[in-house]
Amino acid sequence: MNERWRQARNILCVRLDYLGDVLMCTPALRALRESLPGSRITLLTSGSGAAAAPYIPEVDDVLAYAAPWMKNSAVHGAEADVAFIEDLRARRFDAAVIFTTYSQSTLPAAMLCHLAGIPLRLAHCRENPYQMLTDWVPETEPEQRVRHEVRRQLDLVATIGCRTTDERLSFRVPPEDRETARTLLAAGIDFDKPWVLMHPGATAASRRYPVRHWQAVLRQLADDAGWQVALTGGGSEAGLIEEIRAGHPHAYSLAGKLSLGQLGAAIALAPVLVSNNTGPAHLAAAVGTPVVDLYALTNPQHTPWQVASRVLYQDVSCRFCYKSVCPQGHHACLEQVPPEAVVRAALELAEGNRHGETDEAPLRLFEQAAGLTTREALLVPEAAPARTIGLVRVS
């Protein structure tokens, strides 16, 4: 254990993104908690990320901040940022750990923590941060390697001696949320018969499976396989869900009816989740529910962690674009995933067990494209149908 960090008791952990990003940091938060007993952990995150904090036992407190350097942040004047820095200073943090993807700059958050007078500051950094970070790990991604997002953050805190043997994602479902979710589901689902949960929405348009494909998946599951289908989404996604379930009145919509805790409970109750690569896919990993992940090739590092899964995508030359809207306009990485493959994956997962390994096929695909590995390494996931199916690639 790093001796300077051993004394830290009031720790700020910064992850300014969304629900899934926060969940993928929870094993690293657990490593901090277990390695620094008696410490208090405050999560600094976005408004949407803050919604997860009550369900993460490793977090003691949460601060929501619309950071001006983050996408989709609310516009506010510099006075609000100055006031927030003063609030951080008043809280007298001993240390800050800044979690980012490799495509994000650490320096704005590092400057924030520096100005707040936080003595110890840890992060990855691509260039020498000089006084902005007291402890930093040179950024080697993606030039030398790529790691799953969870592994990246675990490796970061390991540099100061913080480790855990429990690397699962963390999301604790309160008993009252489980009971409410069960009651709401029971209004449209017979738990004694086969059923599946579908989450067709996503914040980014580039990560949304086409509506007509969702309709085909629903039709094949409900009409051909005889499965019951429940659909989840926020209130703003009610129209999307109604469009998908048109003509299938027995497909049950929970759009806008579930809190985050109740959504986690509904996913935990489900035999299998079919979802775009968005927050609920990571919720499924956290609660141990098998997931069919319709994986737009925007980022290779965010597959479901340590859970039985099928990661479905079509390889394209514009892979790993990191864009919220398809820059080519064809959306082929999801457009060309056949609904039949989605249905087959869901049925196979529902008949299997709820344990599995992290599917790293997108990481291997990235490594090959970047010249970081061999063709043989890339082919390993395709030869293991227990882990993934439907990886149909453009020839």
Can you offer a commentary on this structure?
The chain has 395 residues and is of the alpha/beta class. It folds into two domains: 3-158, Rossmann fold (3-Layer(aba) Sandwich), CATH 3.40.50; 175-393, Rossmann fold (3-Layer(aba) Sandwich). It has helices spanning 3-6, 19-23, 26-35, 47-50, 78-90, 107-115, 149-158, 175-186, 211-224, 238-245, 260-269, 279-287, 332-335, 339-351, 361-369, 375-379; strands at 10-15, 40-45, 61-64, 95-98, 120-125, 135-138, 195-199, 228-231, 252-253, 273-276, 291-294, 309-312, 314-315, 392-393. The strands form three sheets. A six-stranded parallel beta sheet has the order 3-2-1-4-5-6. Helix 10 (238-245) links the parallel strand 8 and strand 9 (252-253). Helix 3 packs parallel to helix 7 and helix 9 packs across helix 14 (339-351). It is globular and about 60 Å long. The chain starts with a helix and ends with a strand. Residues 373-395 have low confidence and may be disordered. It comes from Noviherbaspirillum humi.
